[in-house]
Amino acid sequence: MQKIRSTFTVSDFIIDELNEIAEELDEKKSHIVEKALSMYFDYLEAQIADKRLDDIKNGKEKVIPAEEVFKELGL
């Protein structure tokens, strides 16, 4: 997997905590941030899935049966 350098701004409290944790665990800060974001994205994906289910239940979104999709695609 390719690594891409990125720049972003966070509060000094977060940076202080990140520095302390990195030192305590003897881990690179970038590794900790990457793991934390990955875990948070998993959490957000679950929230998105719940929202989509709610939208389907409330009639805001409709479900298209797989058979219709396959038929339209000629499969």
Structure description:
With 75 residues, this protein is an all-alpha fold. The chain has one domain (12-73). It contains 3 helices and no strands. It has helices at 12-25, 29-57, 66-73. The longest helix is centred in the middle third of the chain and has 29 residues, at 29-57. The chain is elongated, with a radius of gyration of 21 Å. It starts with 11 loop residues before the first helix and ends with a helix. The model has no long low-confidence stretch (mean pLDDT 96).
Tags for this model:
75 residues, mainly alpha, 3 helices, 68% helix
Identify the overall geometry. Answer: elongated
Low-confidence stretches: none
Q: Classify the helix fraction into a percent range.
A: 55-70%
Distance between the termini: 34 Å
Number of domains: 1
Q: What series of H and E elements makes up the topology?
A: HHH
Please count the helical segments.
3
Number of strands: 0
Q: How much is the radius of gyration in Å? A: 21 Å
Strand content: under 5%
- Could you report the average pLDDT, rounded to the nearest whole number? 96
Largest sheet: none
